[in-house]
Amino acid sequence: MSESEVSGSDIYMQSLVRFEQGMQYMVSAKSGHGKSSLLNFIYGISNAYVGDIAIREDGGGVVLQSSRDFKVRQMSYMFQDLCLFPELTALENVQLKNRLTDFKSESEIESMLMALLPSEKLNQPVATLSLGQRQRVAAVRSLCQPFRFLLLDEPFSHVDNENAHRMASLVAGEVERQHAGLIVTALDPVDQFEFDKVMNL
Amino acid sequence: MIRKLQRKTMEPIQLVGYAITLLVGATIALLAVQIWRDIRPVLTEQTDVFKAHTVTVSKNITMFKTADKEKIYFGEKELEKLRAQEFVKDVAPFGSASFAASAAISFNGQKLSTDLFFESVPDEYLDVKSEDWVWDSANGFLPIVIPEDYLSLYNFGFAESQSLPVVSEAMLSQVTFNIYVSGNGRHQVYNSRIVGLSGKINSILVPESFLQWANVEFGTGGKERSSRLLVEFADATDERIPQYFEATGLNINQNELEASKLTFFFKLAMLFVVVTALIIVVLSAVLIIMSMNLIVHKNRSLFVNLYNIGYTPAQIARYYHRVISGVTVVVVAMAALLSAWVRHLYVGRLDTVFHIEGGPVSLWVSALLLLLVLLVIYNIFIARIIKSN
Question: What is the pTM of this model?
Answer without folding.
Answer: 0.68
